[in-house]
Amino acid sequence: MDYFRSIVLVAAIAGILAGLGMTVAQQLTTVPLILKAEVYESEGTPAAHDHGESAQPAAHEHEHGAWQPEDGFERTAFTLLANIVTGVGFALLLIAASELAGGIGNWRQGVFWGLAGFAVFTLAPGLGLPPELPAMPAAELGARQLWWLATVLSTAAGIALLFYGRSPLLIIAALALIAAPHLVGAPAPASYDSPVPEGLHHSFVVAVVLTALMFWVLLGALAGLFRGRLMHAS
C-alpha cells in the first residue's frame, strides 16, 4: 500500500510543480500570441464567425453567450488549474509506464523519460496537427481527436519497441508504427484560408513546442528526483 501511495504522491508533487512551471512559461510565450490572434477572431472575419453548415470547428472555438473566464487573473487561474490537473495526469502515466520498466532511478533518467513523453504527446501529433491559434480553420473535431489518439498510441508502442526490442524485425515494426499515422495523414480542413498572419502562427507553433519540451523535461526530472527520495524513505 505504501508503494502505491508513494507513486501517487510523487505524481502529485511532480505534476503540480511542472504545471506551475508550464503556466509561467505560457504567460511569457504563448499567451501574448493568443491575445494577438484573438484580435483577428473578433474582427468578424468569415474564418472566425461562420457558424453555418460549412463552418470548420477551430481549436479555440466557442459558442456565443457561453461562459468564459475573464481576461487577467481569472483566466490565468483557470489556466493554472488546467495545467496542474494535466501535469498530475501525465505524471501518473509517466510513472506507471516507467515502473513497468523498472522505475526511474534518478532525475537524469527522468529527463529521458520526459523526452519520450514529449515525443509521444507533443512532437509526433504536432507533425500532423500543429497547434492552432484562434480564427484558424481546422478539420472536424472527432476526426482530429481520433488521429491524435492513434498517433499517440502508435508512437508510444514504437518507442517501446525501439528501446526494448531485441531483433531487427522488432526494430522494423517499431519504425513502421511510428511512421504509420503520418503515412495515413492527419485530417485536413476544407480550406486553409485564415486572417492570422503566417508569421504569428509560426511563432505560436515554436512557442508551444518549446514550452511543451520544458514541461516534459521538468516533469520527468521531478518524477525521478522525488521517486528516489520518497521510495527510499518508505
Outline of the structure:
This protein has helices spanning 2-28, 30-41, 46-49, 73-100, 107-128, 141-164, 168-184, 198-233. With 234 residues, it is mainly alpha-helical. The protein has one domain (2-49, 68-138, 189-233).
Characterise this structure:
The protein has 234 residues and is an all-alpha fold. The protein has one domain. The protein is built from eight helices and no strands. The radius of gyration is 20 Å and the shape is flat. The termini are close together. The model is unreliable at 45-65 (pLDDT under 50).
Structural class by SSE content: mainly alpha
Shape: flat
Mean pLDDT: 87
Largest sheet: none
The run of helices and strands is: HHHHHHHH
Low-confidence region ranges: 45-65
Number of strands: 0
> N- to C-terminal separation?
11 Å
Rg, alpha carbons: 20 Å
Number of helices: 8
Helical proportion?
over 70%
Oligomeric nature of the chains: single chain
Layout of helices and strands:
Layout: H1 2-28, H2 30-41, H3 46-49, H4 73-100, H5 107-128, H6 141-164, H7 168-184, H8 198-233
Helix pairs in contact: 1-4, 1-8, 2-8, 4-8, 5-6, 5-8, 6-7
Which terms summarize this structure?
single chain; 234 residues; mainly alpha; 8 helices; 0% strand
